[in-house]
Amino acid sequence: MNAVSQDPETAAALERWRMILGAPASAGMPLSDGNAARDAALDWLYGRDDELARRGVRKGGAADSGGPKGAGGSADSVLTTVDWLDGITRLFPKETVERLTRDAVDRYQIHDIVTDPKVLERVEPSPALLKAVLRTKHLMDPKVLELARKLVSAVIAELMRKLATEVRVSFSGTRLRRPSQVRLARNFDVKRTLRGNLGHYQPEERKLYIEDAHFFTRSRRHVDNWQVILLVDQSGSMVSSVIHSAVTAACLWGLPGVRTHLVAFDTSVVDLTSDVTDPVELLMKVQLGGGTDIAKAVTYAGDLVANPRRTIVALISDLYEGGSETNLLRGARSLIEQGCRFLALCALDEEANPAFNRDLAERLATLGAQVGAMTPGELAAFVAEAVNS
């Protein structure tokens, strides 16, 4: 083994396997300083996993007071969350740091990542931490809440930047290009000019002579006003969709031919339309958790509808109804029969990978609802297609 370990490639491969296998593979296989630090950082987090501990995959000792019990630690000192966060930032690439912090808040409920001001001052903003802030903001004192708001603002700004580009692309068809006699360079119609002058091409010179240049005018397409009503389930499982609904509503707000409403619900209904232009403030007002009364939200949407044939109702929910399914189906049927386009989106986020009540989804689909999951960009494209049709 000693002879083999002299080969750098083999030694590096053995170290990788040692880190993958954990404590059971540690005998006679020491780690370099860098990998030993990485192993300790991983053990601080994943050593909390009871299943891994039972399987002996991790040694389960390098955790703080909230960490794993039992196996006995080998760490020189007890790490705090701040120490751990500083360490992984130095030891791992950004993508890995984001995965580790996501597991910390989502899988192991290490709330001090978003409730300890010392940690918040160091943490890199990410969607996972935004979700954690929304889940725990009721635990924060005013100073911590202000730091958390900055994190929320940074993540929302990045989401807005990405989606705004997709929305602009989706709605780029709202201007028509008509032939014009006004000769402006920026309105030069290249394709029509080339087609109209192909007869003047000189093969021996390899030149196309332009006798008739064509131009167009950029005139705005007339569109009827459409309503987009977003009904967003505030239950804890829908937190990612709540975030992206707020961003989507903000990006749709003020577009030509579109009037956007954003309505959040649990067992009550809250119209957040007045806060749509400030998604950060809007999200800080959202109260996650509680029961779910989808039927009440659908009834509220019906009262908002001005012109059913120019209305899109997007119900964003996992469809686990705590109220009356009969009333929900009756309300959805009424909107569909009036001419509304009814979307039942079981997820509205970048992954579009929902967990939902399939039985109720099938019954809504039977009524004529379009059921599925969308990214925010896909919803924007759907709205644009309706408005421009």
TrEMBL record:
Start and end residues of each VWFA domain: 225-384
InterPro entries reported in the protein's UniProt record: LolB, Uncharacterised_CoxE, VWF_A, vWFA_dom_sf
Entry protein name: VWA containing CoxE family protein
